[in-house]
Design a protein that fits this description.
155 residues, mainly beta
Length: 155
């Protein structure tokens, strides 16, 4: 059975090993940023508005932001372009890299905040990219096709 939609890992008989799918690394990355009890904030794209993920054409980029119970902020942004698994119910845009700016209105008047950045992609399942700083509640990250970037504030 080659279907991987519901599997995080599976045994590959031809290779003689267990294969870990990208979605496992995506989930691990998201769980490190978003704690249980996090309160999600409204996320909207200037280009695609509410980033609805339903039947048909998928958005280029999806994002989520939340306040964790400990007061830290969590942000997840995924570039959904370049997915080749098109079906009658799912269509994806061709591969493209994007610079995505996230604006957290609640931090607009706050002092700069440090955010730890981690990435997940086919080439690098989970990597720590260090720290970036928000200014006026705004920060920008670059995402390659099929890449997830998670950010978590350090305070």
């Amino acid at each position: 059975d080659d279907y991987t939609g519901s599997r995080l890992t599976q045994y590959d008989g031809a290779a003689g090993r267990i294969v870990t799918h990208l979605k496992y690394h995506y989930l691990k990355n998201l769980l490190a940023a978003f704690d249980a009890g996090a309160v999600l904030r409204r996320a909207e794209s200037e280009a695609e508005h509410d980033m609805v993920f339903t039947y048909g054409q998928k958005p280029r980029v999806c994002a989520a932001a939340a306040r964790n119970p400990d007061g830290t902020w969590a942000i997840g942004v995924v570039n959904l372009t370049g997915v080749a698994d098109e079906t009658h119910i799912a269509r994806f845009h061709s591969a493209q890299t994007y610079a995505v700016t996230v604006q957290i209105d609640e931090l607009r008047d706050a002092s700069p905040r440090k955010f730890r950045v981690s990435r997940s992609s086919l080439n690098q399942p989970l990597s720590d990219e260090g720290v970036i700083e928000s200014r006026g509640g705004s920060l920008t990250v670059t995402l390659s096709p099929r890449e997830l970037v998670c950010l978590r504030s350090q305070d």
